[in-house]
TrEMBL record:
Species, as recorded: hydrothermal vent metagenome
InterPro entries: GAD-rel (IPR014983), T6SS_Tdi1_C (IPR015002)
Name under which the protein is recorded: GAD-like domain protein
Ranges for domain T6SS immunity protein Tdi1 C-terminal: 139-202
Domain GAD-related intervals: 7-107
Source organism phylogeny: unclassified sequences, metagenomes, ecological metagenomes
Length: 223
């Protein structure tokens, strides 16, 4: 299946992904009712996969439905049943597609969430044009994490703890919200779903918006 021009640009910037599972075509066809078609086409070609040596993962969204429920179940605006995790970074940054509000970005480590469709009424007339949003960051810097001295962690974490397997992430112990420093020696390789749920339960996420170059809190998710 030929990918559209936007996804060809992603492959040029990020390189070929590493496929770890190929879902059935019928399973992916069902996703086309909920997810932008170009992203589903990407899944038809590459399946569930990882980019950048494990910095970024594009998993089966169904595997993370329990996380969507934990994050959004009590929210007055966002329906967790219409939220689908389409990518996550090795350190817990989430890219979520909302059938209501389109792009949702979450940092579980920092405890914030951006939903431009709510805060700024930014909704694309053609959702298919938003399909590459999980891959909109800089391939060299956006899917890493910094230690207290501003040094990037991913490559050092892989060297110390080994490469991530599918379904894993790097977690900080103790977590930032519990006073952890976020340094190399604080890292463990853990199951991504369980760790992401733990982080989501440790603190309520705060809906943020940009005012100029400043992040401004809007409200807590779930209230």
């Amino acid at each position: 299946m030929e990918l559209n021009e936007d996804f060809q640009d992603v492959l040029e910037d990020f390189g070929e992904p590493t496929t770890y599972d190929k879902p059935q075509s019928s399973e992916l066809d069902a996703w086309s009712r909920h997810i932008p078609e170009p992203l589903v086409d990407f899944w038809h070609t590459y399946g569930w996969s990882s980019f950048l040596k494990g910095r970024l993962w594009s998993p089966n969204p169904h595997d993370f439905d329990p996380l969507m429920e934990v994050i959004f179940e009590d929210d007055p605006e966002i329906d967790h049943k219409k939220c689908h995790l389409v990518a996550y970074s090795a350190f817990g940054s989430l890219s979520i597609w909302s059938e209501q509000f389109q792009i949702i970005r979450v940092s579980l480590v920092q405890g914030w969430i951006f939903v431009p469709g709510i805060t700024d009424n930014e909704l694309a007339d053609d959702p298919n044009k938003q399909a590459t949003f999980p891959f909109s960051g800089d391939a060299k810097t956006s899917y890493d994490s910094m230690d207290e001295n501003g040094k990037r962690l991913f490559s050092r974490a892989v060297k110390k703890y080994g490469s991530l397997e599918p379904g894993e992430c790097f977690g900080f112990f103790p977590a930032h919200v519990l006073g952890g420093g976020g340094n190399l020696n604080d890292i463990q390789r853990v199951k991504a779903l369980e760790h992401f749920i733990l982080l989501a339960e440790l603190q309520p996420l705060t809906l943020m918006k940009w005012e100029g170059t400043t992040m401004v809190p809007v409200r807590q998710i779930g209230t």
